[in-house]
């Protein structure tokens, strides 16, 4: 622990945790959710009276991709900025406009034109665009709606770490969403809440009438398969219809974009990397049309597909190939590639692909998902699960659905009719009733750095130091607050710790917070440990000198870390913050 006389540099978490009553969420008229995904984004909302009548009565916007006539309930996650750096457009509009051009807090994103821009600014503009579109849409239903009437919910993958969540919160605040009107929802949790409220006929797994996978005592795996990430958690329905997380959130980057990547690699293998690179750089409109057409066609690829599938390919790709290969056309190059004989045909602007080759585009993603689920099912905490709930856009894929059903025949596979919107609509449900999530499992062991009197029998000699009074101490000790895999009650502080000032004029404290993947780390320098950030507590009233201390309560069960501090001398609250971003 170290001291500081500076102003706190963190943001106020005691006002924003989703399970905290200080979020002023009781006076809202409308809950609006924003989902910024790897490939697609969108918003949904419902008024309080709609939720009370029917929790599933949720409005979602419809988006259209003009250059490919692709209609979707979520838009492309693409932001366009003008040459002077100001925001221009977002989503399909940004894709279409951009294609006509040739063009930690400090994280920078590289634009297609090689310039860089702060990532937080890009995300903030994206959130702001969806926020403004949502307000325009809902005002059509109730014309006098104001920002202060809205409780905003921002979805984040459950596998994200705490700094990433803080990054999204700060981006949302930059977009004009007030801190105390914003909560974060974990995506698989949100989907689970939405599906719990759907009637049986809204599922496509042939569930028998009268049977529910969401009855009290039921245990099930939530497989949230999105464009970029696969987010997995395990839930148990409690007697009061709340949810208990049974296993820490897990997953990886095996989403639908792996299929897109496989398609791009196949094209590159056929035409050459140099041709694909030049095509993508010089024919952006055609490139977008190519991938949008693939997005539509890949939804028709099923395990039962036994005929060739046709993809429309821009003529400019063949022209680019000719320009870099002495006038040679793609079909001529194909003739010399034995591995694609009778599997791929190229005629004009049509690519004809063998069914097995098309289905093989899914192999990399599906194999990793199946392997991960197999490993997950070996854990004691997952025993007794009776079903897998498939949600997220990639879960709409018949290929993924069949792979899950065929590999886990002992489990019921449940697919809601609104698979791609389950997370987004579930976030709205969560905003109306966040208390439905009752227990979570810690993803890490959390603790702070501390010191204790040196004991030569248990302490590392290299960490010994002597204080001003001549007493020997051991430093860099990991003082554990909660451990990985521990079940914690949502909304209740897991740690209450008293801290005292060390000198009379001290106006604040800085306490280093650490995480570990191990259950019982000894030192903060252990290989499993890393510094998560800084907890700061303000103690501005110095008139009591050394007779000052604060009681700090830390909560690790929320969607975000939460800290509060009380002056032990007068019982008054003082500002306490976490800062997890560099």
From TrEMBL:
CDD domains: ASKHA_NBD_HSP70_HSPA12
Gene3D superfamilies given in the database record: 3.30.420.40
TM regions (residue ranges): none
Keyword RNA-binding found: no
Keywords, sorted A to Z: ATP-binding, Nucleotide-binding
Region named Disordered: 1-23
Domain of life: Eukaryota
InterPro entries (UniProt xref): ATPase_NBD, Hsp_70_fam
Family annotation (PANTHER family): ALPHA KINASE/ELONGATION FACTOR 2 KINASE, HEAT SHOCK 70 KDA PROTEIN 12A
Family, per entry: Belongs to the heat shock protein 70 family.
The protein's name in its UniProt record: Heat shock 70 kDa protein 12A
Naturally occurring in which organism (per UniProt): Tegillarca granosa
């Amino acid at each position: 622990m170290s001291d500081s006389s500076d102003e706190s540099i963190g943001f106020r978490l005691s006002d924003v945790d989703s399970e905290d009553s200080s979020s002023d969420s009781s006076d809202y008229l409308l809950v609006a959710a924003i989902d910024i995904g790897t490939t697609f984004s969108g918003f949904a909302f419902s008024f309080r009276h709609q939720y009370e009548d029917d929790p599933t009565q949720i409005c979602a916007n419809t988006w259209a991709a003009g250059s490919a006539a692709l209609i979707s309930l979520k838009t492309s996650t693409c932001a366009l900025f003008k040459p002077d750096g100001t925001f221009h457009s977002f989503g399909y509009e940004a894709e279409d406009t951009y294609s006509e051009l040739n063009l930690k807090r400090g994280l920078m994103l590289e634009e297609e034109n090689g310039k860089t821009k702060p990532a937080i600014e890009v995300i903030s503009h994206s959130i702001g665009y969806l926020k403004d579109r949502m307000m325009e849409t809902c005002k059509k239903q109730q014309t006098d709606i104001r920002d202060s009437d809205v409780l905003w919910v921002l979805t984040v993958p459950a596998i994200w770490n705490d700094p990433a969540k803080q990054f999204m919160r700060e981006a949302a605040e930059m977009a004009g969403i007030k801190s105390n009107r914003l909560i974060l929802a974990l995506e698989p949790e949100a989907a689970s809440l939405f599906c719990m409220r759907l009637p049986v006929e809204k599922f496509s797994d042939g569930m028998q009438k009268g049977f529910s996978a969401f009855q009290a005592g039921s245990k099930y795996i939530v497989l949230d398969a999105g464009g970029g990430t696969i987010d997995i958690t395990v839930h148990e329905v409690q007697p009061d219809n709340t949810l208990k997380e049974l296993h820490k959130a897990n997953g990886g980057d095996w989403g639908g974009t792996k299929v897109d990547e496989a398609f791009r690699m196949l094209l590159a293998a056929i035409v050459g990397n140099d041709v694909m690179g030049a095509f993508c750089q010089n024919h952006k409109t055609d490139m977008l049309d190519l991938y949008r057409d693939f997005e539509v066609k890949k939804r028709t690829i099923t395990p039962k597909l036994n005929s060739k599938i046709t993809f429309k390919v821009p003529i400019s790709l063949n022209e680019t190939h000719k320009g870099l290969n002495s006038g040679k056309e793609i079909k001529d190059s194909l003739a010399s590639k034995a591995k694609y004989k009778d599997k791929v045909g190229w005629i004009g602007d049509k690519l004809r692909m063998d069914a097995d080759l098309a289905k093989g585009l899914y192999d990399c993603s599906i194999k990793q998902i199946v392997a991960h689920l197999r490993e997950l099912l070996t854990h004691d905490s997952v025993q007794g699960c009776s079903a897998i709930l498939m949600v997220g856009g990639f879960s709409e894929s018949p290929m993924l659905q069949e792979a899950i059903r065929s590999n886990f025949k002992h489990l019921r596979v449940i697919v809601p009719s609104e698979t791609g919107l389950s997370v987004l609509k579930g976030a709205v449900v969560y905003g109306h009733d966040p208390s439905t999530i009752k227990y979570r499992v810690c993803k890490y062991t959390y603790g702070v750095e501390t010191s204790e009197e040196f004991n030569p029998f248990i302490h590392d000699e290299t960490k010994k130091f002597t204080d001003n009074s001549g007493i020997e101490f051991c430093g860099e000790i990991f003082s554990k607050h909660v451990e990985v895999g521990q079940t914690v009650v949502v909304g209740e502080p897991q740690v209450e710790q008293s801290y005292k000032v060390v000198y009379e004029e001290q106006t604040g404290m800085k306490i280093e917070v650490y995480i570990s993947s191990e259950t019982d780390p000894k030192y903060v320098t252990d290989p499993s440990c890393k510094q998560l950030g800084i907890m700061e507590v303000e103690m501005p009233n110095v008139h009591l000198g050394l007779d000052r201390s604060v009681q700090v309560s830390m909560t690790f069960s929320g969607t975000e870390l939460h800290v509060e501090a009380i002056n032990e001398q007068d019982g008054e609250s003082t500002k306490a913050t976490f800062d997890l971003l560099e």
